[in-house]
Structures are given as C-alpha cells and as structure tokens.
Amino acid sequence: TVGAVALDQAGNLAAGTSTGGMTNKRYGRVGDSPIIGAGTYADPRCAVSATGHGEYFIRYTVARDICARVEYQGKSLTEAADVVIHDVLVKAGGEGGVIAMDADGHVAMPFNSTGMYRGYIGDDGAPRVAIFPE
Amino acid sequence: QPKWGLVIHGGAGVISRENLSAEREGQVRAALEQALRAGHAVLASGGPSLDAVTAAIRVLEDSPYFNAGKGAVFNHDGINELDAAIMDGSTRAAGAVAGLRHVKNPIELARRVMEKSPHVMMIGEGAEAFARAQGVELVDPKYFYTEERWQGLQRALEKEREQTSPPSSLRPGHDPVTGDHKFG
Predict the structure, then answer these.
(1) pLDDT tens digits, one per residue of A12-24
(2) How many CB atoms lie within 10 A of CB B66?
C-alpha cells in the first residue's frame, strides 16, 4: 500500500491511498485503502492515509477517528494519531500505521509494526526518508 | 512548522533489517525520494495539495517496490486487483475505486470519480468502464507482473495447502524473501 497527504500554500489538505491489497486474497476482498474514513480521509483540519491490516482499520474507522479527535477533542495531530495507532489499534490486535498532516503543517507518522516505508518533505525541499523506528 | 509540505508512505509491516539488503533498501529509499520530489514540485509552484498527492502516488504506483500499481501483489487466482481513494480536505469531496485489473494508475481513476462523477465509489468492471469513458490509461494485466510478487503468491498457496484453518485469505501475506510482511 502507498499513500500521501499534503498541505498546499493555500492551506488546503488532501489525502490519497493506493494498494494491491493482500497476497492470496479471495472473494473480492477489499481492505481499508479505498474506504473513506478507514484508510483515507481529509477534512479542513486533518488528512490521513493508512497502511496495515485493513479489516481492523475498517472496523475502527482509523483515519476518521484520528481527525475526529483533532476536531472534537482539540487534541494535537500527534497525540490523536499516537493514541489511535499505539493504543486503540494495538488493543484491537490491528497492525500498521498512518501518515497524517494538519492545517498548521504538523506531521505524524506513527506505526505499530516493525517498520513503515515513509518520507516527508517541507518547504525547504529536503526529502527525509525512513523505514525503521529511527 | 513548515507552511506546506507532503508526507508519504510505502506500506507497513514486518520489515526486517536482516532481510532487507542494502541494495534493496537503496532502491526503496530512492523511489520514496522521487515521490517526495514529485509532490514537492507541485506544492513549490503553488499547486493544490490534490495534485501533489496524485503526483507522489503515481510515482509509487509506477515503482515495482511497493504494493500498488506495478508492484501489486497477486490474489488467489493469480490476478492483480487494485484499489485507491483520494479526498479533498477543503470540500470533503472524495473518490474511490476497487477491484481494478487494467487501470495503470488507480489514484488517477479515483480522482476522476471524485471530480467527473456524482459518486464516491466505483468497483470492478463498472469502474473500468468509467475509466475507458474518461480516457484513463488502461494496460494489459501483464504490466503488473513482477516475479517477486508471483513467487510470493506461490509460497502463500503452498502454505495454504499445508494448513487447514484458518483460511490464509484472512491473514496478511508474508514474504520470506524480503522479510516484508505486507498488509493491504
């Protein structure tokens, strides 16, 4: 699964996700990536793209849950994303991670798996890429 | 904090340092950087976040190193089935597609669903008919073939034959070659 979230110079957020699904899947199984609110979500305050065990991300509407915590509880993006990935999802048994941005340009990239291919680039144009929890 | 920017991911799972060769890691990192630069070019020129997201994901879809587009995994029948979604935060407009077998860049079709239809989600043959109507690039399914993903399916099928329950379709696939425990 791959994904991106962006904040443009006009202050608008967007999120996108694309995937090949799961090896050996059957019966037209669909994961969270194309499900708005589960694997992909954006509103004026928050944008999220997820990657992980899709069934859990669908049941816990992970992407929307993170943005709802920002919207209704006034949580910071980092706090909201960390709670959902490291607490809610872990307790449920779901594995994976998200990338997220808010309207102020804050970035969160939490994951509870051993690694997540990920990267960030800001207005300085310097790309930063990571795989493991470094 | 930056005034604008882009974040990407290329999948999560059991990615082992021992099984990720230096060569492979370099290739993955280079592809991620290429995607970041593609999105950054859009944002730096004042382009919208939707264009930046689309540009970055297209790069990752065209790379054989990630489970999307060119590098997609195979389903039980040896077919690549692709899904994608995109959402505009400023308007909450959204587009999603699932079960595609011929669309080279599913993120592009998801965006067409969002911008050129009154709907949010299309699947399977209907989605591909919409792609043809929109002039979205279609490819022979052979385009998506990679030997690594094919062997991954063969190992999953073999493991399935050795086990009786639960069905392997309910568990994430594990690739012992890359150590990459990929989820959908």
Answers:
(1) 999 999 999 999 9
(2) 29
Query: If you write DSSP's letter for every residue of A101-113 in order, what string do you get?
Result: EETT--EE--BSS
Return left, alpha or beta for B154; rule: phi > 0 is left, psi -120 to 50 is alpha, else beta.
Answer: alpha
The answer to whether A127 contacts B37, with C-beta atoms less than 8 Å apart, is yes
Contacts of A34 in chain B (CB under 8 A): 83-85, 96-98, 110, 121
Check A115 against B14: CB less than 8 A apart. Answer: yes
- Helix, strand, or coil here: B174? coil
Whether B76 sits inside 8 A of A107 (CB atoms) is no
Q: What is the DSSP code (8-state) at residue A108? A: E
Residue B162: both structure tokens together: 């050795």
* Residue range A44-78, pLDDT digits in tens: 999 999 999 999 999 999 999 999 999 999 999 99
At residue A109, what are phi and psi to the nearest 5 degrees? -140, 50
